Every structure is written in C-alpha cells, then in structure tokens.
Amino acid sequence: MRRFVGIILNAKYRVEKDHKDIGVIIPLDDEELKFLMTKA
C-alpha cells in the first residue's frame, strides 16, 4: 500500500509538471485519490 501511495504522489507531481500527459490517465478529482493524498 505504501508503494502505491508513492506511485500516486509521483504521478501527481508529474501531473503538475506536465498535465496533458498524465492528466488523462489520472483524474485529479477522483475521490479515492483525494483520500489517499490526505492520508499520505
């Protein structure tokens, strides 16, 4: 689970750097993503 959160954190960082690449793959308004981000 910890590794998964790390992957999401890395993905979020990359979304902020290059939104058009990763933004399509990971919706930033995903409720599960928000939950994990607040827990991390």
Summarize the structure.
The chain is 72% helix and 0% strand. The chain is mostly helical and 40 residues long. The longest helix has 16 residues, at 2-17.
Can you give a write-up of this model?
- 72% of the residues lie in helices and 0% in strands.
- It has helices at residues 2-17, 19-22, 31-39.
- It is mostly helical and 40 residues long.
- It is flat and about 25 Å long.
- Keywords: Oxidoreductase, Plasmid.
- This is Electron transfer flavoprotein-ubiquinone oxidoreductase.
- Its EC number is 1.5.5.1.
- Residues 1-39 form the Replication initiator protein A C-terminal domain.
Number of helices: 3
Order of helices and strands: HHH
Structural class: mainly alpha
Radius of gyration based on Cα positions: 10 Å
- Stretches where pLDDT falls below 50 for ≥5 residues? none
The residue fraction in helices comes out at over 70%
- Number of E strands: 0
Q: Beta-sheet strand percentage?
A: under 5%
Terminal Cα span: 11 Å
Summarize this structure as a short list of keywords or feature phrases:
72% helix, Bac_RepA_C, Electron transfer flavoprotein-ubiquinone oxidoreductase, mainly alpha, flat
Q: Which secondary structure elements does this structure contain, and how are they paired or packed?
A:
Layout: H1 2-17, H2 19-22, H3 31-39
